[in-house]
């Protein structure tokens, strides 16, 4: 990956359309959802169980994070590594993160065998991701700025000049802004405000 793209990543911003893949009368419904934390996974999976109440298995995989990604894969009763990991393999193949991909299976009466299951879950995940709108995003760093009201013009001019996004602002005698910049511009932004006269108090916000 090129140096300037190290703070960018691929994800989806809205759930995919439902896709249907059939194999030997078994039906596989595939879905992709954007997620920002692990707690979002369970309600989404439960909703799929309710939607497909005759489904035998709701298998899934998710990945969160960019610099230190972590993931889980769940076979939901299918043979070990025959469902969750093939789904996760497609997440890796498409190079996406902050995502949950689920494939719901309704058994059609014919056993597929482990090889057939791996292929079917992989295809279901691939079709769900193909049906998703994948976008490129950049990692952001947020800062808290604190300064006296007299410095407002200077601060606003600097923010506008460098096209820095203001997330929230409190303007009284003492002003507090929360701003967001591309992560690779964090050090440069720190320097912009600490070098002002008088310097603006700036600190990273988690």
Report what the structure shows.
Helix 2 packs parallel to helix 3 (113-130). The chain has 5 helices and 11 strands. Residues 1-5 have low confidence and may be disordered. Helices cover 29% and strands 36% of the residues. The chain folds into 2 domains: 3-137, 2-Layer Sandwich (Ribosomal Protein S5, domain 2); 139-205, ACT domain (Alpha-Beta Plaits, 2-Layer Sandwich), CATH 3.30.70.260. It has helices at residues 41-51, 84-94, 113-130, 152-161, 186-194, and strands spanning 8-12, 19-23, 26-34, 57-64, 70-74, 99-106, 134-138, 140-148, 165-170, 174-182, 201-205. The chain has 206 residues and is of the alpha+beta class. The strands form 3 sheets. A 5-stranded antiparallel sheet has the order 2-3-6-4-5, with helices on both faces. A 4-stranded antiparallel sheet has the order 9-10-8-11, covered by helices on one side.
Apparent shape:
elongated
Q: The CATH topology of the largest domain, please?
A: Ribosomal Protein S5, domain 2
Specify the number of helices. 5
Kindly report how far apart the N and C termini lie. Answer: 26 Å
Q: Could you say how many structural domains there are in total?
A: 2
Q: Main sheet: which strands, in order across?
A: 2-3-6-4-5
Share of helix, binned? 25-40%
Mean pLDDT metric: 88
Strand content: 35-45%
Q: What is the CATH homologous superfamily assignment of the largest domain?
A: Impact, N-terminal domain
- The low-confidence runs, each spanning 5 or more residues with pLDDT under 50, are 1-5
| Assigned CATH class of the largest domain | Alpha Beta
SSE order, one letter for each helix or strand: EEEHEEHEHEEHEEHE
Structural class: alpha+beta
Task: Report the sheet with the most strands, covering strand number, pairing sense and barrel closure.
Answer: 5 strands, antiparallel
């Amino acid at each position: 990956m090129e140096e300037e793209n190290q703070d960018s990543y691929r994800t989806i911003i809205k759930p995919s359309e439902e896709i249907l893949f059939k194999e030997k009368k078994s039906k596989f419904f595939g879905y992709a959802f954007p997620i920002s934390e692990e707690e979002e996974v369970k309600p989404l999976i439960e909703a799929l169980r309710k939607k497909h109440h005759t489904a035998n298995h709701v298998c899934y995989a998710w990945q969160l994070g960019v610099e230190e990604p972590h993931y889980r894969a769940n076979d939901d009763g299918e043979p070990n590594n025959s469902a969750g990991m093939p789904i996760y393999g497609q997440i890796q193949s498409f190079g996406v993160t902050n995502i949950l991909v689920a494939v719901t299976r309704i058994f059609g009466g014919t056993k597929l065998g482990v090889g057939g299951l791996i292929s079917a879950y992989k295809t279901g995940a691939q079709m769900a991701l193909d049906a998703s709108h994948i976008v490129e995003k950049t990692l952001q760093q947020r800062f808290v700025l604190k300064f006296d009201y007299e410095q407002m013009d200077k601060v606003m001019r600097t923010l506008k000049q460098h096209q820095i996004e203001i997330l929230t602002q409190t303007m009284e005698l003492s002003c507090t802004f929360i701003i967001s910049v591309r992560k690779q511009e964090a050090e440069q932004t720190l320097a912009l405000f600490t070098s002002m006269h008088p310097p603006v108090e700036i600190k990273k916000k988690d």
